[in-house]
Amino acid sequence: MSRFFESELIARGQLGPLWNNLREQPHYIQSFVKQMQPQVKQIVAGYNVNYRQLNDASQMGLLFDIATLSKDQIIFTVLTSL
Fold it and tell me: Which of 4, 26, 34, 72 has the least CB density, counted as fewest CB within 10 Å?
């Protein structure tokens, strides 16, 4: 029986070198993530969504995605640095 998702194989074989490069040069991923952010003002599931960069005294977070979950609900992903 084959596995649908084998995270160890993917991590070791395909994502390992990319992850190591990003860890060594984090400014590249920060630039990429900022370019991938959704529009600052948009309407999602009937809501006016205005967002800004989320800042905390100890870490920074970026709103990475906003999507419609249902006709009156939204879902979002926030990416934070560790």
Answer: 4
Angle at 35 between CA 28 and CA 30, to 5 degrees: 30
Pairing between β-strand 47-50 and β-strand 41-44 as defined by DSSP bridges: antiparallel
Separation between Cα atoms, residue 82 and residue 61, nearest integer Å: 10
Which pTM value belongs to this model? Answer: 0.34
Instruction: Please give the Cα distance from 42 to 10 (Å, whole number).
Output: 35
**Average pLDDT along the chain:** 67
* pLDDT at 31 > cutoff 80: no
Count of residues making up the chain:
82
Interatomic CA distance for residues 13 and 6, integer angstroms? 11
Q: Which two tokens stand for residue 38?
A: 């959704």
Strand order in the sheet with 54-55: 54-55, 60-70, 73-80
